[in-house]
Write a structure and sequence with these properties.
Blueprint (H helix, E strand, L loop, with lengths): L1 H7 L6 E4 L14 H15 L3 E4 L2 H18 L14 H30 L18 E9 L5 E9 H12 L2 E2 L3 E3 L2 E3 L5 H16 L5 E2 L1 H14 L3 E6 L5 E6 L1
Helix pairs in contact: 5-6
C-alpha cells in the first residue's frame, strides 16, 4: 500500500484522521466486519504518528493547506519529472552553448557601444572656441532622498572649469569605465565621487550627506565634451581580467 511504501522509502507522510468515525454515513463507510477491522487498524497506524484530526470538510481543507505549507518550508523536496520530459545530456550541452553565445554577443555589443560613445573621433571643422568651456555653465540632472525620505530630482548648473578641476586629478594616467570597490564591480568612472562632492556643495542643505545619483548619460557627455575640447585623449585597452581602461593625457 502507498502509505507503507512512503514510510519504507523515508518519504514524508502527512496524516489526517476523522475525529469521530461513527459520524460518517454508513454508505460512505465500511460495511463488512473485515473492512471495519482493517479501517480501524489503519486508523490506529496513522494516529501512531503525528497527524491532524478533523470534524468537517472545511477543517480538513484547512489542515491540509497548513500542513503542506509547513512541510514544503521545513522539508523541501525535488519534484517528480516523467522520463520523457527530463533533459538529456545533449540538451544541457545545447543550453550551455546558447548561453555562451549570448554572453559573447552581449560582450561584443557592450564593446561596440563603448566604441560609439567613447571612441568617437573629434568632429572635423568644429572650433574649440565654439564649444562651452571655462566659466560656461553645464546642467546636470541628479537625484537623492531628501530629509523626508522622498526621492527628489534636481538640476544643478556648474561651470566647465569646476568640472575639469574636480575630475581632472582622478583622470590622470587613465580612465576606467568599470571600477571595483569592496569586491564588487561598479559601472562608473573613478571621478564619480569627486563630481558628487562638487554637486553636493550646491545642494547640501537638501541632500546633506545622503547619496547623490548622477545621470549616467550626463557623465558620459562630460567625458566626450572634454575630449572634443582636447583636454583628454584616450585609447581603449582590454585587460586579461576582462576590464577596460583608456590611456589618456590631460
Amino acid at each position: 500500500m502507498e502509505y507503507n511504501f512512503a514510510l519504507q522509502s523515508s518519504i514524508p507522510v502527512l496524516g489526517f484522521v476523522r475525529k469521530d468515525i461513527g459520524q460518517i454515513p454508513t454508505k460512505f463507510s465500511e460495511n463488512t466486519l473485515e473492512g471495519k477491522e482493517k479501517l480501524q487498524a489503519f486508523r490506529q497506524k496513522v494516529m501512531s504518528k503525528t497527524c491532524r484530526l478533523f470534524d468537517s470538510a472545511s477543517e480538513l481543507g484547512m489542515a491540509v493547506m497548513k500542513s503542506l505549507t509547513n512541510e514544503m518550508r521545513i522539508n523541501p523536496r525535488e519534484g517528480w519529472v516523467p522520463a520523457q520530459q527530463a533533459k538529456s545530456t545533449k540538451d544541457y550541452e545545447k543550453e550551455k552553448e546558447l548561453h555562451d553565445l549570448v554572453e559573447t554577443i552581449s560582450k561584443e555589443n557592450e564593446r561596440l557601444k563603448r566604441r560609439i560613445r567613447d571612441g568617437t573621433l573629434k568632429i572635423a571643422g568644429l572650433k574649440t572656441s565654439d564649444l562651452a568651456q571655462g566659466s560656461d555653465r553645464h546642467e546636470l540632472k541628479i537625484g537623492f532622498n531628501n530629509r523626508d525620505k522622498n526621492y527628489t530630482i534636481f538640476s544643478v548648473s556648474v561651470s566647465w572649469d569646476e568640472i575639469f578641476q574636480t575630475i581632472g586629478p582622478a583622470m590622470y594616467g587613465y580612465i576606467v569605465r568599470k571600477v571595483e570597490q569592496y569586491g564588487r564591480d561598479y559601472n562608473q568612472y573613478p571621478f564619480n565621487n569627486s563630481l558628487e562632492h562638487l554637486i553636493r556643495s550646491y545642494v547640501f542643505e537638501d541632500a546633506q550627506n545622503r547619496k547623490i545619483d548622477i545621470k549616467e548619460s550626463d557623465i558620459d557627455t562630460i567625458v566626450i565634451h572634454l575630449k572634443q575640447l582636447g583636454y583628454i585623449e584616450y585609447q581603449e585597452n582590454t585587460h586579461e581580467d576582462g576590464k577596460f581602461s583608456r590611456d589618456n593625457s590631460n
